[in-house]
Specification:
It holds the Pfam family BPD_transp_1. With about 270 residues, the chain is mostly helical. It has ten helices and no strands. Helix 3 packs antiparallel against helix 8, helix 6 crosses helix 8 and helix 7 crosses helix 8. The relative contact order is 0.12.
């Protein structure tokens, strides 16, 4: 048994390096195929992004004049701010609500039907009300991100609490953790953390999807604004370049959340 345990740390870096190598090779192959298809003229360059038009878009956005009302870093900074604020509001409201609904049957009976009624409504269906209530500014976009990210946080936190072994809860009560705050701190949160982090990852992904949709309507700056303007100008290279940045930023934020999860849940490494 000790020999098998000793070999585990050596295998993980090898597997990790293999995954990185395969990932880099896949990206290189996809880029090569993209370049060949574009170079041979198999697609219409006016409708399909090519490496050249995408590079030209990158150069234009990096200049001081920028595109769609701002430079690349201005667009990125604005979009990141909206996602972070909307995501922060979503988890600060969704996680506590999920904990309460999962632990208290009375609270679940009170709030559950309302949540079940609102849950199927698509986030984009809230756009008219968001504009009516908050206008076309950033508060409306933060509201839409909150609406979309709130649901995964609630559902997964609720499931995490409900999956805790009832024996553990009873044992905690017997040993003096009968108070709500102590029960929350010592049993409910630690026991449901894996599912909470799952909900956070889903909420973060949903936040980015909703951001782009929200910025397509009435935005003055942001990556969604770039996408909307480029579509009107028929610039597929600019559209692809903005999409790449949305994917990169979403991936980086997800990796950061996974880094936090590994340190909060070291036993799951």
């Amino acid at each position: 048994m000790s020999e098998h345990i000793a070999t585990l740390p050596a295998r993980r870096p090898r597997v990790s390096r293999r995954r990185v190598t395969v990932g880099v090779a896949a990206v290189a192959a996809a880029f090569a195929a993209w370049w060949i298809v574009s170079a041979l003229g198999l697609v219409n360059g006016a409708r399909f992004p090519t490496p050249l038009t995408t590079w030209q878009a990158a150069v234009q956005l990096s200049r001081d004049s920028g595109y769609a009302g701002g430079t690349l870093f201005q667009h990125i900074g604005h979009s990141l701010r909206l996602v972070f604020l909307g995501f922060l509001v979503a988890i600060s409201t969704g996680v506590p609500l999920g904990l309460l609904m999962g632990f208290s049957k009375r609270f679940d009976a009170l709030i559950g039907p309302v949540f079940s009624l609102l849950r199927p409504i698509p986030p984009l269906a809230w756009i008219p009300l968001a504009i009516l209530w908050l206008g076309l500014g950033d508060p409306a976009k933060i509201f839409l991100i909150w609406v979309s990210s709130f649901t995964p946080a609630v559902i997964n936190t609720y499931a995490g609490v409900r999956n805790i072994d009832p024996t553990l809860i009873e044992a905690a009560r017997v040993h003096g953790a009968g108070g709500p705050l102590r029960m929350l701190r010592e049993v409910l949160i630690p026991g449901s953390l894996p599912m909470i982090f799952t909900g956070l990852r889903l909420s973060l992904q949903t936040a980015w999807m909703t951001l782009v949709a929200a910025e397509l309507i009435g935005a003055f700056i942001g990556l969604g604004k770039v996408l909307d303007t480029a579509a009107l100008d028929i610039r597929p290279g600019m559209i692809l370049y903005a999409m790449v940045w949305v994917g990169l930023l979403g991936a980086v934020m997800t990796r950061g959340l996974e880094w936090i999860e590994k340190r909060a849940l070291p036993w799951l490494r």
